[in-house]
Backbone:
């Protein structure tokens, strides 16, 4: 079988397309396609990750212009339900109105600037805790205390300023730029790639808020490549196809990139060739620990066994029929990112999304919001409320109870590794960091788009 070799894909490992070609449950066309685009960003200055001036430029020029995931629709099911989204450079209140519209208000009183809300809540009006000015759920003025003392206020004009809101897949996005393209344009090919994987059918069951000792870009860049498997997650080398991962960036598309990471394939960096049985054993040992191991039926590959087991386990867990699902969608890690800070999986085993936001005034820290989804109840009843877990820089994913311990261990390895990476960026020499041509093409993509935004003039909302 000829190896599919994109122009600058020179890895000696089997390409992803070679891995999936003989899957008994074949992949849909979405995953038998690949797209390459050479991106001329061989490296960037370290200051992009460490300098307060660079972080300020991002705050003034990039963050106010991009669409960002603020919350999920099911987090605000009723009129008056409200989520506080700390968008970099602007705190926003995401509120469902009596008319079912979702609006995003700047979280700052028009009197003397007080924060209107400190946390997620449910309200009938937006009332300032300082002197009691209040606004209706549509942003119109509701009450001015000592009205006689504010002759300058014109009721009709004294509305709470809003950011733009867009909705896709159950996610509520915001954008502070009145001139930004609409969300559907910004999302480019993402909706097409999730057309058969509707995210409206799941709910946000858990959200882990983890403070990371690393810049927001150090963080996201550490999650969009498989290249670090050998260094940080060496326990996965026997069954993680790092060098077989496919990375896609599309011509003319500056917001979306993806990788397709095969499961049940050994890393090219593992010191010897493993049998399919050995690959399966190593994979199951990592997940389940000691215990009896099943024997692979003759001729079956480890990845097929894993896909079958996943389909069966997920069907047992949520009562849905996954028997027609391809092996790629059942077992592999299909991961999409939306510039600048959102990552969404499209696979049965990874019902996850990530969001990374900078911590104000500190380029060396970020918040990693890890979202865990579950299928919505089939009887149409409202899903349970989202459970929030807060982790400090030294708290462990493995011990937090929200993830299986083996998976938590992987995220702990990432957290420690990314903090070390940030420390090296901060205290090391002055040379540029460099990116590989293929395996780090999504990082090149991120910086290419970021550079375009940084060339724009500062934007200083909120609008009057
Ligand atoms: S600052 Fe809000 S009512 Fe005074
Ligand atoms: Fe990792």
Residues:
């Amino acid at each position: 079988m000829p190896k599919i070799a994109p122009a600058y894909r020179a890895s000696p490992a089997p390409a992803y397309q070679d891995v999936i070609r003989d899957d008994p449950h074949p992949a849909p066309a979405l995953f038998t396609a690949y797209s390459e685009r050479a991106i001329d960003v061989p490296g960037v200055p370290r200051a992009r990750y460490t300098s307060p001036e660079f972080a300020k430029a991002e705050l003034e020029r990039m963050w106010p212009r991009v669409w960002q995931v603020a919350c999920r629709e099911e987090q605000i099911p009723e009129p008056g339900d409200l989520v506080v989204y700390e968008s970099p450079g602007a705190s926003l209140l995401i509120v469902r109105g009596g008319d079912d519209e979702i609006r995003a208000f700047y979280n700052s009183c028009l009197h003397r600037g007080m924060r209107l809300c400190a946390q997620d809540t449910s309200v009938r009006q937006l009332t300032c805790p300082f002197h009691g000015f209040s606004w209706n759920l549509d942003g119109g003025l509701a009450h001015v205390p000592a009205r006689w003392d504010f002759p300058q206020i014109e009721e009709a004009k004294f509305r709470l300023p809003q950011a733009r809101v867009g909705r896709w897949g159950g996610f509520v996005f915001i954008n502070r730029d009145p001139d930004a393209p609409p969300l559907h344009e910004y999302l480019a090919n993402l909706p097409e790639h999730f057309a058969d994987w509707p995210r409206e059918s799941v709910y946000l069951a858990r959200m882990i808020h983890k403070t990371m000792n690393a810049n927001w870009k150090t963080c996201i860049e550490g999650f969009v490549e498989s290249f670090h498997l050998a260094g940080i997650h060496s326990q996965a080398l026997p069954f993680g196809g790092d060098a077989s991962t496919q990375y896609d960036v599309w011509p003319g598309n500056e917001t979306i990139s993806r990788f397709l990471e095969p499961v049940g394939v050994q890393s090219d960096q593992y010191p010897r060739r493993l049998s399919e049985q050995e690959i399966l054993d190593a994979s199951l040992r990592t997940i389940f620990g000691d215990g009896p191991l099943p024997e692979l039926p003759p001729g079956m590959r480890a990845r097929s066994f894993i896909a079958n087991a996943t389909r069966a386990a997920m069907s047992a867990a949520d009562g849905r029929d996954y028997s027609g699902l391809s092996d790629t969608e059942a077992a592999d890690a299909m991961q999409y990112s939306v510039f600048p800070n959102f990552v969404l999986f499209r696979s049965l085993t990874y019902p996850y999304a990530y969001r990374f936001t900078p911590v104000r005034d500190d380029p060396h820290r970020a918040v990693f919001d890890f979202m865990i989804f579950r299928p919505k109840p089939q009887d149409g009843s409202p899903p349970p409320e989202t459970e929030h877990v807060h982790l400090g820089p030294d708290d462990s994913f493995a011990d937090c109870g929200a993830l299986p311990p083996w998976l938590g261990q992987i995220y702990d390895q990432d957290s420690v590794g990314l903090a070390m990476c940030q420390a090296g960026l901060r205290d090391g020499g002055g040379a540029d960091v460099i990116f590989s041509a293929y395996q780090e093409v999504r990082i090149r993509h991120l910086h290419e788009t970021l550079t375009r935004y940084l060339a724009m003039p500062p934007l200083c909302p909120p609008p009057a």
